[in-house]
Amino acid sequence: MKHALRTLLVVIIAVFSAQAHGVVTRVVTSTGVTVSARYDDATPIAHAQVNVYAPDNPRTPWLRGTTNDSGEFRFVPDHTIVGQWGVQIRQAGHGAMVHVEIGSQQNITVTSNELSSLQKGVMVLCVVWGSIGTALYFKRRSA
């Protein structure tokens, strides 16, 4: 019993102390589109690989580039290609995808696939629940 509780405590501490990098993006539109990418701790993702995908060919990058020292990337989309443009930012296993909707009247709408606080909380609860189940399984086998 003590071994199972000790194991459970170690797993819970490991889950909550794990430091993972999330990616936070910010998009500013003017004559073009500026995408700003940062880690969760506000560190800019400098010199990250950026691929921009046009809606008429989502498999082949329309434009490739890198973010600057501030983690920003600017581009001017071809406004004759109306639809949802994709901007993918990647660096060392971290990344994010942002979608920019270019309308026929040069309207620009931005959507992002970042996780909400509720989604992050549910993921943590699932890991804790799985840890408890694992601890109870090993407790049962040793009895």
Note down, in words, how this protein is organized:
By secondary structure, this protein is α+β, with helices and mostly antiparallel strands. Helix content is about 30%, strand content about 35%. It has two helices and eight strands. It has helices at about 1-15, 115-140, and strands at about 25-30, 35-40, 50-55, 65, 70-75, 85-90, 95-100, 110. It has a five-stranded antiparallel β-sheet, with no helix packed on it. A three-stranded antiparallel β-sheet has the order 1-2-5, with no helix packed on it. A hairpin with a 2-residue loop joins strand 6 (about 85-90) and strand 7. The protein is elongated.
| Straight-line distance between termini | 9 Å
Which of globular, elongated, flat, extended, rod-shaped describes the shape? Answer: elongated
The sequence of SSEs as H and E is: HEEEEEEEEH
Mean pLDDT: 83
Q: Report helical residue fraction.
A: 25-40%
C-alpha Rg, in Å? Answer: 21 Å
Write out key terms for the chains shown:
143 residues; alpha+beta; 5-stranded antiparallel β-sheet; 3-stranded antiparallel β-sheet; 8 strands; 29% helix; 35% strand; elongated
